[in-house]
Amino acid sequence: MSHSLDEFADRLQEEVNQEVIQKYGERVYERWSNPRFGGRMESPTGYGRVTGNCGDTMEIFLRLEGELVSDASFTTDGCGCSAVCASVACELAIGKEPEKVADVTGEMILQVLGGLPEDDVHCGFLAAKTLRAALSEIS
Ligand code: FES
After folding, report:
1. Domain extents for the chain?
2. What is the reported pTM?
3. 106 lines ligand 1 (CB under 6 A)
4. Can you give the pLDDT of all 139 residues of the chain as single tens digits?
5. How far away, in angstroms, is 64 Cα from ligand 1 center?
6. Do residues 74 and 58 make contact, with C-beta atoms less than 8 angstroms apart?
7. SS3 track for 96-115
8. Residue range 90-99, pLDDT digits in tens
């Protein structure tokens, strides 16, 4: 009984996975299923919190060591794409000087992901805006 329930759950999950891949592509799926840099950071050097027009709120935390961003993390109460975009924003920030991080745009985030459907493009711009908000505390 529980064995068939497990099989049903697995099949259902596989269907969801395939739908995500079909709609958003492999890169988004990979990051959606394995979101990196999620979570709050204790005593960050920089912190940004932005609520987008969609009503979702994103936070980005940055740690600066020497001249470089050594760590970054995010939270979001928004859609799956907001988590995926915030994850990319964190990745693009780590290992860079704050001046270079300031150059990270929504377009760059979307490019890393191979683009997003039109309805979700704004999630990338929210991530870039939140990253800049976090940076503004550092400089
Ligand atoms: Fe609000 Fe994606 S719908 S960030």
Report:
1. 35-136
2. 0.91
3. no
4. 578 899 999 999 999 999 989 999 999 999 998 889 999 999 999 999 999 999 999 999 999 999 999 999 999 999 999 999 999 999 999 999 999 999 999 999 999 999 999 999 999 999 999 999 999 987 5
5. 28
6. yes
7. CCHHHHCCCCHHHHHHHCCC
8. 999 999 999 9
Ligand 1 pocket member 56 (CB < 6 A): yes
User: Mind listing the pLDDT tens digit for each residue in 96-119?
Assistant: 999 999 999 999 999 999 999 999
Q: Which tokens in the block code for residue 120?
A: 């979700």
Identity of the amino acid at 138: I
Sign of the C-alpha dihedral computed for residues 39, 40, 45 and 48 taken in this order? positive
Ligand 1 mutation pick, 58, 110, 122, max ligand atoms within 8 A of CB: 122
Assigned fold of 35-136: Sufe protein. Chain: A (3.90.1010)
Ligand 1 center to 126 CA (angstroms): 8
